[in-house]
Design a protein that fits this description.
The protein is built from 4 helices and no strands. It is mostly helical. The chain starts with a helix and ends with a helix.
């Protein structure tokens, strides 16, 4: 029994040594907040003050990663991070612009599919 009490006392000492007492409580900005309106007969607008630090943290949490950081933070973010094209698109440049063209086979199959769809819709 005394061995168990000694072990229990040691556990409590360790917990107290590493325990941190938080006195500054804030709302988690990463969690969705359901805001409720105040009562219609009360006038709280004059008494309430906006917490600037919370507002800044809340706005920062709602930003997309490209607005928060200059460069991607993970490898997955590197895909699509820089969305501006490297060169201007020029539709007259055949090296970069490949419009859809129809050959004799694709023209024939297009007509065949249209005929098939029309015959199915008639039934």
């Amino acid at each position: 029994s005394s061995g168990i009490n000694a072990e229990y006392g040691e556990t409590i000492k360790k917990e107290q040594k590493h325990q941190k007492l938080h006195k500054d409580y804030r709302v988690n900005p990463f969690k969705k907040i359901n805001v409720l309106a105040s009562k219609p007969n009360t006038n709280l607008e004059d008494d309430t003050q906006e917490d600037e630090q919370f507002v800044n943290i809340f706005k920062k949490a709602r930003e997309v990663p490209t607005e928060k950081y200059d460069y991607p933070q993970t490898e997955s973010q590197s895909y699509g991070w820089f969305t501006t094209p490297l060169i201007d698109s020029d539709r007259s440049d055949i090296r970069l612009h490949h419009p859809r063209t129809m050959s004799e086979v694709t023209k024939y199959m297009d007509a065949a599919w249209r005929l098939k769809e029309q015959s199915e819709n008639m039934q």
